[in-house]
Every structure is written in C-alpha cells, then in structure tokens.
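Pipeline run #58 for the internal structure catalog. This entry was flagged by the ingest filter as a single-chain record with no existing model, so it goes straight to prediction. Upstream metadata was stripped on purpose; only the residue string is passed forward. Reviewer on rotation: M.T. Logging verbosity set to normal.
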Amino acid sequence: MIRDLGDGLRLRAATPADADALAAFVGSMLRGQDADAPSALMTAWARDLAEGRHPSFRPADTTVVVDGRSGALVSCLHLLSHTWAYGGVPIAVGQPELIATAPERRGAGLVRAQFEVVHGWSAARGHRLLAISGIPWYYRQFGYELAITRGGGPRVRLEPDVPLPPVPAGWAVRAARAEDVPFLVELSAVAAARSLVTVPRDAALWRYELEGKSAGSAARREIRMLERDGARVGFLLHAIEPWGAMPVITGFEVTAGVSWREAWLTALPYLFGVGDAMAGGAGRCTALTLWFLGEEHPLYGVARFQEREEAYAWYARVPDMAAFLRAVTPALERRLAASPCAGHTGTLALGFYRDGVRLTLERGKLAVVESWRPEITVVGLEFGRPSSDPRRPLAMFPDLTFPQLLLGARSLVELEKAFPDCVVRTPEARALLDALFPKTPSDIWPVL
C-alpha cells in the first residue's frame, strides 16, 4: 500500500492480478459520451497494458484505489513513459492515461492523490514533460495546460450519386508487413521534420504497432502501405472504430517526388470501403475525417476540402522549466542561428509572476539556463515599460501561458491578445522570443 486514504480506501500500485478488474473498470468508466454500454475497445486497451504488452509500461505503473471493505476498485491512473522529440531533440515524457473514478467516489480527491504519487514517479524517471489528451478543463487542477495543438484537419464528404475518381494506374493499397518496418521508420522520421513535438518510432516500436496490440484495442491503428508499380511509396494509418459514422485517418505520408494527389486518389476508395464495412448494414459511408492530421499537412495543398473541424489541444505539464530548456538547448540554438538574432549575446529573464527562468546567451549559444525568481521587493509599480533594473523580468507570462508559447500552440502576439498581463518589455526581448519560440504545429501519435 502506498497510502491509506481513509474511509476504508487504500491507494497502491497495481499488480498483474488486477488485470481483469482494471480492464472492466476502465471499459465501464471511459465509455463514449452518453453511451449505454461499456467500451469494449477501452477494455481491451486497458487489458493490454495490465498484461504487459506495452514495450515500456508495466502493471506497477498503474495506481489504483481500492475499497478495503469490499475489495472493489474505485479509481485508477496509468503512467506511460515515452521518448518524444522537441525540434528533433529527444526528451523523456510521461503520459498519464486511462484515468477514471467510480461516480459515487468522485469529488473526494482520489485522482489528486494518485497524481501526487505519479508525479513523484515521473520526476524519478527524469520526465521533462508530461502530456495528457483529456477532457476539457479537468487536468488544469493538477498543473496542466492545453499547450500543444491537436487535430483540426478537414472532413471529406462523398456527394450522393457522384462516383469516386478512379485509382491512378499502377497504384495499390495493401496491409503493412514486418518487412515494411525499415521503410516506415525512414518515412516517419522525414515527416516528423515538419512538426515541433513528435513521437519518434524506431523499428521495435513500429513492430509493436504492427503486432503488439490486441485486435480490439482502442489504441490500435491499421497500417496500410501505398504502392506504385509494386514499390512502396507511402503509408496510411486509420483507427479501427469510426468517429460518429466516419472512418478516422490518423496518418498519411508519401516519399519525396511522389504525387500526393495520386496517393490520395488511391486511398479514397479503400477508406470509403473501410467506412462501409464499419457501418455494416447501416448504410453507405458518406464521410471521412482527417482531424488527426492537424491544421497543416502537405495533402491539403493538392486536395480541396470544404469542411474543417476545430482543433483541440494536448494538456502539458513542464515540472521544471529550466531543466526542460536545458534539455532542448540544441533545438533552441538552431532556431536562433536561423533567425535575425543569430549570434546574440545577452540575458533574457522570463517571469511567470511567482517564479521564472533566466537565459544567458553568448554569441548565439545558451551558456546558462537557470531557474530565477523575480524580486518582490522592487519599489515602484510594474507597468511593463522598459527598465534598467535587472531585477525586473524582460517578459512576463501569467499562470501557465508560457508552455503555450514553448510548445508551439500560440505565437507571442496571440498570447498578448488573449492575456493582457502577458507583457514583453523591450523590442530585443520580443525578437528573441519570436526567434526561440515560433508558433509551430506538432504531430503526436503516442505509443499506447
């Protein structure tokens, strides 16, 4: 037992013996909105984790709260450990997932107690970032902010009585096989260069995606290869369940020098066929969603999409901002070198009102990145005007707004418009912030 929570409740790490109870609990609690029945897909995913299928997750990476009188499981939280990349620089990431509490036990602080434990585990593992794809508002209570743009891609509709265009000559779609893994590794790495935060997959992780998950897991993606004249030229990913009545496309890539349009025309009949199969006898599939491809994708330059769904975001928590910035220093220095601020020497003190960080640059290199606390003894009102007093920060970011800039969700100008107390004191500070932290899309497909 990790902690006695009172009222007969005990917080502990899960064991393999909890697999059946955990899977059933997760499937029941994390069912679809307004659904009458538990989610079989969530049940299968939770069972995969509890049985140790995941390459970096073990049953003891789950916290559970159990009623000591009845033995019933009443709350749980899973912590997955990953390696992601920020601007191409690997960083250790923790992902809390499958978080649930029985309705009659909500509001009693059970999730908060588990987050306290899991955040300790995360710190011990050296996670520089924690990320959750979760429901609105809830995770802000635990130090998370919606700070990494997620989704926002278009919707494709099949007009009544309008046939799909023919598949271009020589093109085909087939299921991925083990021998495709090196190609998948190479092409996914090339695609990642378009995004700020990404999830690199080596051969072992791609094999896990192909073979490691149970057939009915919500975390599973179908992987299909795009071929032209018998040669691999791209890949396509889609979920195994529809979103509403629409098949969900989660990845689409082709190699350099290959027509995106021809690849898309090849994929369309396959995808609408998937939709028809998902619908069963309920009718013909008439729409697809590319929401997971995000707001920017090369495909959008060659195909016309009239409908678009609003983007959401990943919650992010940066437990030690200075440590994160030190970890991604190579990416920041590359940005600076490619900007008008190349070769800059000076100090950039960023205040988060209660704490902050200070960056010391020497000829374009981050010589020092350190935690820093603005002085509360400075005499004189703060109006955000230029100041010669080094105790005042050069830029100020309220609450958890800075991660939105750091992780590419908003530009500096957008933050200033949304938050009047986001203040930049000098043109020099503005130029450095724009150079170091430009608004940039991310593409996160975590290893689940």
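catalog note: The chain has a mean pLDDT of 96.
catalog note: The longest helix spans residues 260-279.
status: ready for reviewer M.T.
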